[in-house]
Amino acid sequence: MRLITLEEHYRSPQVDGEIGEAGDYFRSMNTAGEKAAQRLVNLSDLGERRLADMDRAGIDLQVLSYTEPSPEILESSRAVPLAQRANDEMAEAVRRHPKRFAAFATLPVADPSAAAIELERTVKQFGFKGAMINGMAQGRFLDDAFFTPLLERAQALDVPLYLHPAPPPEAVEKTYFSGLEPGLARILSIAGWGWHAEQGLHTLRVIATGVFDRFPKLQIIIGHMGEMIPFFLARIDAIVMPFAKDLKRSVADYFHSNVHITTSGLFTAPPLYLALAVVGADRILFSVDYPYSSNEQGRAFLEKLSLAPVDFEKITHGNAERLLKL
Ligand code: CA
Prior knowledge:
Number of strands: 8
Largest sheet: 5 strands, parallel
Structural class: alpha/beta
Number of domains: 1
CATH superfamily: Metal-dependent hydrolases
CATH topology: TIM Barrel
CATH architecture: Alpha-Beta Barrel
Distance between the termini: 15 Å
CATH class: Alpha Beta
Bound molecules: calcium ion
Order of helices and strands: EHHHHEHEHEHEHHHHEHHHEHEHH
Radius of gyration: 19 Å
Strand content: 5-15%
Number of helices: 17
């Protein structure tokens, strides 16, 4: 069985140094916790260390993506060259190990036209499989008309955009998470709940504002078993649709035709079985979230599942091969 994972992160020490103090707020995610030192080493490796870790879990191919803090957070004149550099480094790893790595581009989202150009460069020159976008881009969600050039190009190139969570804007952090012990506030605002809620909202904004009416062939990928949307989808559909009168189809319809979900970081069976019932096996893709989650833990989760063999093949590699043309 071929095993492909899609939310597997990289950090370049050089690019990170250039991002400098603008990344301090995001960087604290990578430097917190007892395994931080090892995580940083793993994040920055695109060679033997990463491959050995994949081998231990039987992972054949990782789709690489640049972690936060990424060039996305910088204004355009700084973001463009740093995004190119980060993408060039990932492209070099793909070139060295074409059977083991593929990549999603990191983009200078502060300038959507420049982001479109960089997406096209990486797809055409390096065979990248799409791009990853972390959270709000420069204070905007992707439904903003500001991003039209980028969405147009992704559709034209027939590559998906992976919408990944990021820490909340300062105003949200202050309003929702003040009055708590700082470590607890931080974790509740990100992986403990907050950024999943935000990413679910981001996806719903994209759907409910008609982005997929404007770009019917555009595909997005979201991690963490669908950022809670599968659990709520029927309710969302019933409650939101009366207020989204311009949509051509239902919210659930777009979710079933323009969104794929991955298992990144969620290694218990109930959310997967729920997603299977709601979303179906054709749109669920196995992923780990390396090195924030462990490859071996992801593999152990797979081994315990009770799935029809045909669904198992789709989730472990078939859907990724089709969506990313691997
Ligand atoms: Ca991740």
